[in-house]
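Please, structure for the following, as tokens.
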Amino acid sequence: MEELDTSKAHVARVYDYWLGGKDNFEADRAYGDELERRVPAIRVAARMNRLFLGRAVRFLTAEARVRQFLDIGTGLPTANNTHQVAQLIAPASRIVYTDNDPLVLVHARALLTSSAEGRTAYIAADVREPATILGAPELTATLDLREPVAVLLIAVLHLVTDDAVAYPAIRSIVDAMPSGSYLALSHATGDFWPAEQVEAANATNRAHNVDFRFRTRAEFARFFEGLELVEPGIVPVAEWRSDGGPIPERRDANIWAAVARKG
């Protein structure tokens, strides 16, 4: 797990800042403000991504009837965390959270307030080391890998910039899950922006030493190879099973999203 370094922006804390949270530091706010100057709709994208998490968990719980969740890169606790959404529908749902930010570990108690019928646990781990996640006693004590599990990585994989790490990590995790499991992902993209805006965002990331990788729709689709996409497939994050509310323009919520089932 990373050591807490408040001098360098961390995307989990920047995301918290954009969502109106208070668990962030000056470096996070400076990076967040500069990126927002380059990309004025960045807070819209953050909100749409958070709403996608809620809709995906509601689908997985109410329609797919999944009762186990592995939320990787969960970020800092806020409203409507995975266990809150799932256990409102199915109180016996079990959730394991993981993150590599030590500040999330400090706040993990907020993620462990399970319903009496269900259970939650937290692992300090990084998706780049899937064996650590899969072998953690907190996971094996909480989830039954003989039964379907929904694996969530919401706005995480654009932080894993090396394809030689990102794709095998997801494959290892999916391979460890039984048939009937699901994979839910969202991922930032430059597909909806002019090239100069993409480069402006990349320049800001480099200036703040933030590892970040926009991926195209085709690159995002590779994470779902061998899985069956759930309708409506790969779509902009605000359009995935939208609840009938206003949908921002694609360029304002520059994130691909999808959920897929393992046969």
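The chain is about 35% helix and 15% strand. The longest helix spans residues 42-63.
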